[in-house]
């Protein structure tokens, strides 16, 4: 073997170890953040239940969440555009160049101006907006949601800025601060809601959400300043080519994210036709779903995305294929046991997590129904989000936008079909189908940019699917015939069954010679010997 090939193998091993270390670190922080977020949701559920006030809050929050989750969150347009452009013009271990600082400030100032105008419009016309998004709701619900929206309207400005600062930090491999900062939102909400126990209209909850977003933004400031990005009121790079590159990525990506929100608004329309609390139930189901999925996807795709961008700049297509298959393979390997767990234990989990105070057994039933049908989207969700990062690395946000746009009619059609017979479950089931369709279309169109080796993905997917199906059937039998009583008994039973089916799944995948399972067993064996 020649020297250059040995050096390439060594470099791949070094990157792989670095990627896994970053993934584990991010996963640990996200787990803590998600646990705190869960506790926040438990507190909200305890004091507001699943009813008029919670529906008003979650309907109203959908507008500012467009900024916080999509613009300010991982994989959002601002974050993706910043990482894609800045990772190609700055060097981590060198002083930040002046033109990069000017470009950053130009983007911050232009974003603030646009978002400030949007905030004013939302504040002034909150009643009209709520009438549109809650068209099937009663006047009391619409009025209360309108007030909540006014209180939370500043998040439109804050969310956009969070996304920019988030992108800069990730570009410099600073993953901890952006993933710690969402915890602060949860802390502010928990503290405020716990103090304002008699907040019968939910105004304290809406105010706490706005203040939490502001605290999250402030928390990111010191590290960005330390990297050399001092704020200046300038628009000097407005005609800069790199600024145009950001806009070229940003606008289609914003439109793509907005299309994703259209799905949500479609769901809000159908949910408003159902029983009171339906939209809140769907929201809680999505939070439970995002707890494990968010940890998996964020932990691996956050460090992978800058790597994809650098590999594209180097025209290293083999590297892209290698890390894509490695990343998505590990994600799927961990996702199948999670899917089985949700299908088997969703009802028990909702009872344990939420059923107290104003959150009764009927609320548990509603959330469980929504969660079960949403859970089947976990595998296509991973595939779609992984491929989207590859598109962004190629500076292409238009294709994901067109794919998402083409699925809006499909979403409406599927809701019409599924909602009548399945109720809340029909809304989340249609979401799962749309996610699958979007993933398949992205996989089809990626061939125009790079020939991905999907044969490896399909082979590994089949091995995992067969192993997971057998483990699930064993789990169903065990769940049916193991009878316990009391909350502690249920926790012990579900934990024991989950451990058994996970071990069965891992053994079967190892027998099928799946590389991830073999690596897992070797690491366990090494630890035991050590």
Task: Describe this structure as you would to a colleague.
The protein has helices at residues 3-48, 52-71, 77-86, 98-124, 126-133, 139-152, 155-171, 176-195, 203-226, 241-271, 278-313, 317-354, 361-375, 378-393, 398-406, 408-422, 424-445, 454-481, 487-511, 515-529. The chain has 530 residues and is mostly helical. It contains 20 helices and no strands. Helix content is 82%, strand content 0%.
Secondary structure: elements and pairs:
Blueprint: H1 3-48, H2 52-71, H3 77-86, H4 98-124, H5 126-133, H6 139-152, H7 155-171, H8 176-195, H9 203-226, H10 241-271, H11 278-313, H12 317-354, H13 361-375, H14 378-393, H15 398-406, H16 408-422, H17 424-445, H18 454-481, H19 487-511, H20 515-529
What is the gist of this entry?
The chain is mainly α.
Defining key terms:
globular, 530 residues, mainly alpha, 20 helices, single chain
């Amino acid at each position: 073997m020649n020297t250059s090939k040995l050096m390439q193998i060594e470099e791949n091993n070094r990157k792989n170890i670095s990627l896994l270390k970053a993934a584990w670190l991010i996963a640990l922080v996200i787990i803590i953040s998600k646990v705190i977020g869960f506790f926040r949701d438990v507190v909200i559920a305890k004091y507001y239940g699943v009813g008029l006030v919670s529906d008003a809050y979650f309907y109203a929050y959908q507008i500012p969440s467009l900024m916080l989750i999509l613009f300010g969150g991982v994989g959002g347009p601002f974050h993706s555009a910043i990482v894609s452009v800045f990772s190609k013009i700055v060097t981590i271990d060198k002083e930040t160049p002046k033109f990069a600082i000017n470009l950053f400030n130009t983007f911050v100032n232009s974003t603030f101006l646009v978002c400030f105008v949007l905030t004013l419009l939302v504040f002034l016309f909150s009643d009209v907006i709520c009438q549109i998004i809650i068209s099937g709701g009663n006047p009391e619900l619409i009025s209360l949601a309108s007030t909540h929206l006014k209180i939370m309207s500043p998040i439109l400005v804050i969310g956009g800025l969070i996304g920019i600062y988030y992108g800069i930090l990730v570009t410099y491999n600073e993953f901890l601060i952006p993933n710690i900062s969402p915890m602060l939102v949860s802390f502010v909400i928990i503290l405020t809601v716990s103090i304002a126990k008699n907040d019968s209209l939910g105004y304290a909850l809406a105010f706490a959400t706005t203040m939490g977003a502001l605290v999250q933004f402030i928390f990111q400031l010191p590290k960005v300043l330390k990297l050399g990005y001092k704020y200046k009121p300038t628009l000097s790079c407005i005609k800069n080519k790199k600024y145009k590159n950001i806009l070229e990525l940003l606008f289609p990506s914003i439109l793509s994210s907005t299309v994703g929100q259209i799905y949500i608004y479609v769901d809000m329309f159908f949910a408003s036709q159902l029983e009171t609390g339906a939209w809140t139930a769907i929201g809680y189901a999505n939070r439970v779903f995002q707890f494990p999925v968010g940890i998996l996807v964020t932990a691996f795709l956050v460090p992978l995305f800058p790597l994809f961008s650098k590999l594209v700049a180097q025209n290293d297509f083999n590297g892209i294929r290698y890390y894509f298959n490695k990343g998505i393979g590990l994600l799927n390997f961990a996702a199948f046991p999670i899917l089985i767990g949700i299908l088997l234990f969703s009802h028990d989990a909702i009872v344990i997590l939420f059923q107290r105070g104003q959150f009764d057994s009927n609320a548990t039933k509603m959330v469980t129904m929504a969660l079960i049908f949403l859970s089947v989207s976990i595998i296509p969700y991973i595939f779609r989000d992984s491929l989207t990062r590859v598109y962004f690395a190629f500076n292409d946000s238009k294709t994901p936008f067109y794919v998402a746009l083409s699925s809006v009619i499909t979403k409406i059609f599927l809701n019409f079909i599924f909602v009548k017979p399945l109720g809340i479950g029909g809304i989340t089931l249609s979401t799962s189908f749309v996610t699958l369709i979007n993933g398949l279309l992205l996989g089809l169109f990626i061939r125009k940019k790079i020939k991905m080796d999907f044969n490896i993905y399909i082979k590994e997917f089949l091995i995992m699917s067969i192993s997971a199906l057998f483990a699930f059937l064993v789990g169903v039998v065990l769940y049916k015939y193991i009878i316990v009583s009391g909350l502690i008994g249920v926790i012990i039973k579900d934990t024991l069954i989950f451990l058994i089916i996970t071990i069965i799944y891992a053994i079967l995948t190892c027998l099928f010679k799946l590389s991830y399972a073999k690596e897992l067993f070797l690491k366990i064996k090494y630890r035991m010997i050590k």
